[in-house]
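User: Please fill in residues for this 152-position structure.
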């Protein structure tokens, strides 16, 4: 499950992509029903890693620093929530051996969840903010065609 903070971050990025210009924090917070102070923290986190930029002054606000086609859901989730892994022994960036596991190679639970994690990563790392903004049918087709390609 993703955190509320990650959902807010994705909503904010989609709002910025749709605006194609600078939006002030208050506009995004009101339009997306996100608490303003919380949104400011999220936008600062995204600014630190180069996803958004801020501008001061009369025409200031936040804007995407990268095109929406280059920002993936996986990037945002890792930034906000950390590793995308159901078990610590499956994490790519925060690997930790499970305390109660004898051998990872023979762990039945790990094998099943490894498939789950790979499937989730494939969808999240290939789905961009621009994809999410596309018509609902296009996103469904995108996910199905990528799943079919990955299976072959």
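Assistant: Residues filled in for all 152 positions:
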């Amino acid at each position: 499950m993703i955190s509320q903070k990650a959902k807010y971050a994705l909503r904010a990025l989609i709002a910025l992509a749709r605006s194609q210009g600078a939006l002030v924090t208050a506009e995004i917070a009101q339009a997306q029903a996100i608490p303003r102070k919380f949104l400011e923290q999220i936008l600062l986190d995204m600014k630190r890693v180069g996803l958004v930029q801020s501008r001061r002054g009369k025409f200031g606000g936040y804007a995407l620093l990268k095109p929406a086609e280059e920002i993936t859901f996986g990037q945002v989730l890792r930034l906000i929530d950390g590793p995308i892994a159901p078990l610590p022994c499956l994490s790519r960036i925060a690997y930790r051996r499970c305390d109660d596991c004898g051998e990872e190679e023979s762990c039945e639970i790990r094998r099943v969840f490894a498939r789950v994690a790979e499937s989730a990563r494939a969808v999240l790392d290939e789905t961009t903010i621009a994809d999410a903004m596309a018509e609902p049918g296009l996103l469904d087709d995108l996910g199905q065609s990528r799943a079919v390609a990955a299976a072959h």
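For context: The domain at 4-64 is CATH 1.10.10.10 (Arc Repressor Mutant, subunit A).
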